[in-house]
Write a structure and sequence with these properties.
about 55% helix, mainly alpha, about 110 residues, globular
Length: about 110
């Protein structure tokens, strides 16, 4: 759970991690949407920063290393919204199926406008 220095696996502050790219990051549309969803849902009181952090820390080291920043955040948002009773896993699965049935070009069509 923690090293001798008291750090847990996700606590990377102050650790050697190589060079930090200084050029700007061009955020993908879905990343912007995750950020907006976090702001909107947090503003509505559906979760707290502490709840988001807890879900991130509960993911475990493998998921933390495997997924990108925004992939981890959307998983955390989703977990918190389920815990808040906003929707169920079954409702989410049905909605995901509905979106998948729209076809692979749906997301592309949404960025053209």
């Amino acid at each position: 759970m923690s090293d001798i220095d008291g750090r847990r696996w996700h606590d990377m502050g102050g650790q050697p991690a190589g060079d930090i790219p200084m050029e700007g990051h061009d955020f993908a549309l879905w990343e912007k949407r995750v950020d907006a969803l976090m702001v909107l849902c947090g503003g509505k009181g559906l979760f707290t920063v502490d709840g988001l952090r807890r879900a991130l820390e509960d993911m475990g080291e493998e998921a933390f290393e495997k997924h990108s920043y925004y992939e981890r955040w959307i998983a955390s948002v989703n977990q918190n919204l389920i815990e808040a009773g906003t929707y169920t896993l079954e409702e989410l699965a049905l909605k995901m199926q509905e979106v998948a049935e729209r076809g692979p070009s749906y997301a592309e069509a949404q960025t053209d406008g």
